Amino acid sequence: MPQLPTHRPRRNRKSQIIRDMVQETRLTTHDFIFPLFLIEGHSQQVEIHSMPGIFRFSADKLIDEVGRCVELGIQSFAPFPSINDGLKDRLARESANPEGLYLKTIAEIKRQFPDVVLMTDVAMDPYSSDGHDGVVDAESGEILNDATLEVLGQMALAQARAGADIIGPSDMMDGRVAWIRDVLDSNAFSHVSIMSYTAKYASAFYGPFRDALDSAPKKGDKKSYQMNPANRREALRELALDEAEGADMVMIKPALSYLDVIREVRDNTHLPVTAYNVSGEYAMVKAAAQNGWLDGEKTMMEVLTSIKRAGADAILTYFAKEAAEVLRRG
Ligand code: PBG
Question: Would you name the residues annotated as active-site residues?
Fold first, then answer.
């Protein structure tokens, strides 16, 4: 006679109340950082074709959107600008223009919502005529690491002056965390944090974002600075450097195909760990839901829960607003 089981894990699943009691991971709106897309103009609100439910807003509309999110309990935002082609150049000079679209809007959001946390993006691509995150050598096409640091430092400083709470270098140049920390500290911005994109992979999942900002590289790809998706140990090397250079928080990006990396980083640092649930991950769920192939809402909550379970303390996600609505309904 086969033995009947003594140990029955199903007992802990027998009712909703017990399931809730033993639930290990819970999402709250405090977990979310909501990326926002900013465009020129007035009264503009344009849905991004490959990201249903996500819009590119002119500054006035973006501020309304921040207000709606705050109502829902979302308090942290990561704005990204779409810059007119005429303002782009090799050295991304527009990125440090305090009167430019991005910095003026950052300052205005902080004026109207002093308590919200703004994480600004440091990378050249939205302002670069080459569409790269670094300075491109005109002859060789190489991405010049150390020449880029100079640009990133000025960009970060301008963002701090505009009122950024957290600087988010997403460029993957070597040494940029230390460089930016030094520029901030020597300009009386020692209170401004750095959330480093520690392990940012050269991923196909960024496609919809590049459409949204028209920021795809004009030539070549980003593999000489973003990480190879096949590598995990390399993330720990980047982590050690970012810690040594003074990062306050570290990030893994994308999230969903990199849950193992999130866990690995979580287990190897005392710093807060965040994950970026990127545009393509959002688009996948939306596309399947629109076809009726998946339950969009349940899939969204499962995706976000899995990222937190893997070890993320906070999640940058285009789902933030929709998930906050679900959480509010309870
Ligand atoms: C570039 C940047 C990218 C994203 C955020 N910052 C794209 C890239 O590296 O080409 C992607 C975010 C997303 O896909 O949601 N500095």
Answer: 200, 253
